[in-house]
Amino acid sequence: MSGAPSPRPTSRPESELTTTGASPPEPQQVDATTLEDINRGNRPIRASLISAFVVPVLVIGQAAWATYVVCYKLAHQRLIMRDHQKGAGCAVIVLHALLMFAAGVAYMRLIQVIYTDPGLLPLGITRAKRGEGGNDDMKTVMKRWSEKRSVIHTTRPEDPHSREELFKELAAHNQHQADLRMEALKTFRPKEMFIVAPDCLPRWCKTCETFKPDRTHHCSDLGRCVRRMDHFCPWVGGIVSETTTKFFVQFLFYAMLFCVFMLATTIALFKRDNDRYGERNPWLIAMLVLSGVYTLFTVGMFQNSMWMLAKNFTTVEQRQFGMPLHLAVRISDWYTGDIDHLPCYAVVGFPSAPGEKWAVFETEPRARLWDLGSAYANICEVMGNSVWDWLLPFKYSPCVTHDDDISEYQFGPAALAVKNRVQA
């Protein structure tokens, strides 16, 4: 244990709160950062929500136009009717239909899950009781949050009296959040290993007023916490999360094949017409530009998505990569040494688990805790364990089940090494 971090000082008020039942901490000091956060959080976001509905309609419209050009203008009029190559023309139409069908099914499945089961975390009890959103339907959430944030504009008041009143209001808000957090600890069910905040308590969302499980992040576009949040994608009209990542990748795969086929067909016909007839049809030129742009986009998106699946990363985690995390590991059932000399960040307990202790360790800045050690294992956690699971957009990802008592998501060697380091 020569490389283990130094023990945290014996004064650990945050951890004592969970075992001694002491009163909640003093209200946090309100500073300019808090004001800026609130100002930024209340800015209208109607543009991103509008794009989530407009962009998919435009994409579907362009796909319909491309179908018209390829199947009618190129395959029917040019190959079948003009050049009398029925075999080639029919082959183009059939392949186009098959790829269009595969991409369409994946897209419809993705949209269906986005709007019915987007992976939202339930609201805290007090937040839900206030009637500010207990429905997990994403369309309802988006509409409510858009209306709420489009009319709220919090500005920094210049009048000193107004600023003092605002500071008091923020201090009361922070105290209220601290009280809610302490109350929620009474029913918090800790896993054997999980990520905690720097204060050694479970990560807390002030907006949803609930604890955030591992890999859960708050989506400002929806105003809700999302499990295994990746990003909010206007191209598909919603959130990419633990329930939708698999279908998102499948859609990218079939869309990429569709675009590559369209580009290859257009290039072949363009070269053929230019060599035989010396003409450059405007339909072919427009199709060449459109298919080329979408091929580059879908290939890049699919490649990036597969790379992150292979590393067991999300877009949010990739942006935060390099920041150390705080990993809580239950030690009461296997550690027999002196807790006061345990080389860890802190030792905590929770009212809902009397007699149990968790040691909190600060991870290495670039540790990949959920990397299972191989690209195949990482991909299988999202895509499934069989070829049919990878290709067919029907089953959910294996990672959506959270019935494991060890962790919310399966930890990799980097996280297990923390526990092994103490055992050694």
Give a quick account of the main beta sheet: strands, pairing sense, barrel closure.
4 strands, antiparallel
Number of helices: 13
Give, in order, the helices and strands.
HHHHHHHEEEEEEEHHHEEEHHH
Query: What structural category do the secondary elements indicate?
Result: alpha+beta
Taking the alpha carbons of the first and last residues, their distance comes to 7 Å
Quaternary structure: single chain
Which geometry do the CA atoms define? elongated
Indicate the low-confidence ranges by residue numbers: 1-45, 133-137, 149-155
Give the percentage of residues in beta strands.
5-15%
* Number of strand elements: 10
Radius of gyration: 27 Å
Helix amount: 40-55%
> What strand order characterises the main sheet?
1-8-10-9
The average pLDDT score comes to 79
Enzyme class: transferase
Protein name: Palmitoyltransferase
Membrane topology: Multi-pass membrane protein
Catalytic activity: L-cysteinyl-[protein] + hexadecanoyl-CoA = S-hexadecanoyl-L-cysteinyl-[protein] + CoA
Walk me through what this model shows:
The chain crosses the membrane at residues 49-75, 87-108, 251-270, 282-302. The protein is of the alpha+beta class and 424 residues long. The chain has a domain at 46-118 and 243-305. Helices cover 52% and strands 9% of the residues. The chain has 13 helices and ten strands. It has helices at residues 13-20, 32-41, 46-82, 86-116, 125-129, 138-150, 160-184, 245-276, 282-311, 315-319, 375-383, 387-391, 413-423; strands spanning 193-196, 204-205, 210-211, 217-219, 224-226, 231-233, 238-240, 326-330, 346-350, 353-362. β6 and β7 (238-240) form a beta hairpin. The longest helix is centred in the first third of the chain and has 37 residues, at 46-82. Mean pLDDT is 79; it is low at 1-45, 133-137 and 149-155.
